[in-house]
Amino acid sequence: MLRVLVLVSGGGTNLQAIIDATASGKITNTQLVGVLSNNKTVKSLERAKNAGIPAVSVSPKDYADRAAFNDALLEKVDSFAPDLIVLAGFLVAIPEAMVHKYSNRIINIHPSLIPSFCGVGYYGLKVHEQALKRGVKVTGATVHFVTEGMDEGPIIAQKAVKVEDDDTPEILQKRVMEQAEWILLPQAVDDIANSRIRVENGHVKRS
Ligand code: GAR
């Protein structure tokens, strides 16, 4: 059983997609061992508790500086002994020490077709605002492994989503979640749990 720890910052709809897919058997060989938020009052912690998954928060506000927070975050992550860490809308930069310790064992969902609309400053609704500003006709979502550079790791899967003429960022965000994110992320967890993918020379291969 793959021990999966999910890191969240906000509403947790991607977390819910993973919880539901695990309950329905779409994700197999997986145990959701914990949910960690950098935010004490988010809906995600409630979603975790409702599903009987241990939920904890580690807030930067409780630490003197970033280094102290990063140490506490890694310590808390380690305490779950995860095989896979899933960033499901976790909007905190992952400390370098954690990236190294969990190399090829951290995945992230991003709400665009990387390398478009990604990197520093591109998160959540901002991604969709920029996509609409640029006037793209197709956007989507990407699941990738996490490396040091933001949104630069090996791509596991991508799915395109059509942009409609009268989209607002909120409407586009919802469509990208429904048509791409909530499908791609559980699928990637299941693929990893069942050893269907591997990283070779910085690229993801399927077996
Ligand atoms: C999702 O759209 C996710 O792709 C995005 O935050 C949202 C979280 O929603 N992540 C990023 O932008 C990471 N750069 P959720 O809390 O409802 O899953």
- Looking at the overall shape, the CATH architecture is 3-Layer(aba) Sandwich
**Overall structural domain count:** 1
Fraction of helical residues:
25-40%
For the terminal residues, how far apart are their CA atoms? 19 Å
Judging from the principal axes of the Cα atoms, what is the shape? globular
- The CATH superfamily is Formyl transferase, N-terminal domain
Notes on the protein architecture:
The protein has one domain (2-198): 3-Layer(aba) Sandwich (Rossmann fold). It contains 6 helices and 9 strands, in the order βαβαβαβαβαββαββ. It has helices spanning 13-24, 43-50, 66-79, 96-101, 125-134, 169-193, and strands at 2-8, 30-37, 55-57, 84-87, 106-110, 138-145, 155-162, 197-200, 203-206. Helix 2 (43-50) links the parallel strand 2 (30-37) and strand 3 (55-57). Glycinamide ribonucleotide is lined by residues 8, 10-14, 88-89, 109-111, 123-124, 127, 177, 181.
Write the layout of secondary structure elements.
Layout lengths: L1 E7 L4 H12 L5 E8 L5 H8 L4 E3 L8 H14 L4 E4 L8 H6 L4 E5 L14 H10 L3 E8 L9 E8 L6 H25 L3 E4 L2 E4 L1
Parallel strand pairs: 1-2, 1-4, 2-3, 4-5
Antiparallel strand pairs: 5-6, 6-7, 8-9
Bound molecules: glycinamide ribonucleotide (GAR).
